[in-house]
Amino acid sequence: MTARMLTAVLCLGLAACASAPAPQASASDGTRRRPLTEAETCDVIVQVAKQVGEGPFDADIKREGSRGIDCSAQLKAAGLAIFPASRMDAPNVQISTQDRGWVFHEPRFTDDAEAIIQMDFICRALCGHGEEVTVRLQDGGWKIVKRNQTWIS
User: Fold this and answer.
1) Which backbone phi and psi does 75 adopt, to 5 degrees?
2) Whose CA is closest to 57, among 77, 39, 38?
């Protein structure tokens, strides 16, 4: 009898847990944020790229531990110049102005309304610099609020 009761209580408890919504991190204003889709990530990158202003931009957003996110369609639709990442890594390629540009890394969120994005300006041999950019969600868009240089060559 005791084993049956324990089994029944355990099953009821598991059913209640399974039907409860998963907890999510919430912002200081009480809103909740789900993980970003690739399209949402590209939207953040496009908004930041417009504020950086100097192009071209690598359309392949770097992502830790997996393939990158292709934002070429969104960058082109926003009227921003892009360059192919494959040219950056190809050996013995003649250096041109297309070999220069910004490379973005996937945003890391500190909370629902703030993220840090690593940006690298690459211009080939012993030329380039990196920045860590803090962006904040303000007035319905992502705004750069701080830029810190992280490396220089």
Assistant:
1) -65, -45
2) 77
How far apart CA 94 and CA 79 sit, in angstroms, is: 26
**What is this structure's pTM?**
0.67
At 77-130, the pLDDT tens digits run 999 888 765 444 444 444 455 567 888 999 999 888 999 999 998 887 778 899
Three-state DSSP class for residue 86: helix
- Residue 138 CA to residue 87 CA, distance in Å, equals 36
Residue reference for tokens 């609020």:
145
R_g (Cα) of the chain, nearest Å: 22
Strands (E), the chain: 57-58, 60-61, 69-70, 82-83, 101-104, 108-111, 114-122, 128-138, 141-152
